[in-house]
Input
Amino acid sequence: MKEYDKVELISDKQKFKDLGIEKGRIGTILGPKRNGYWYVVFDGEIFQGEDGIWDCTDISAAVLDEDVKVIWECPD
Amino acid sequence: MSDLKRINDYARKMFSTNWVKWVHEGTKPADTSAEKSANVLIGTLSKHCAMCLNLNGCCFVKEKCPQKPLHQNCHCYTINIPAITAKADCPIEKFTKYVFVSSLIDDKRQLFELWGYDIMDSKYLQQEFIKQAKLAYSVGDYELGLLNEYGQRINIAITLNRKDNNGQVTFRSGWMVYPNGKIVLTTPYGRK
Output
């Protein structure tokens, strides 16, 4: 597992539910491993807000190795 | 907004922006991601608060600064500073390995391609993000984002000229604040 790999959430932990991330959600590791945790941005929907600014419903979270599985390895 | 009007607007803001620097006395500011991580560990092992340690030395405009105190017995304070020299880091991999990489969900790639950009434009986008973020941060044009033990994120609006027509598009990018006017891109396309 490394930065920019695509991962799928396989954990049912309450902390993810509290953030609004459900099991099966796909995300990208967008930061180096820090203190055992990866910084993952889980993909959401993309939309254009009323102010004209493009927005999304992505959710970021700190995850452990055991919380996710790699579904796509980013080439070096 | 015309370029001249935008420049005038920035110049006015630059001279009217009041900056403060966050101070957690007696500790070294965390200048790198690794040092921020070390502070998180220190926070679990000592009486120091990781959030405060990782805000040490970070600069904010007075009205867009994290609220003090951050916790009970927080002894952090801010000092007024005349201005900052903004520095922005933007890893090109955020484009070559994230925005423009195909995967099961590739909305961001599709969106950027809709606007006329592809992976060959990564270097241009990197430079454009750095230019716009430095300017925006230096005049306080940012929104406070997530604050946690790793530090304060800010959102900065990026405007690109569409390559497929004469229009422009604006979206938010996410940056981590580091000491002494430095920001580092965390996500090139983020949420409000």
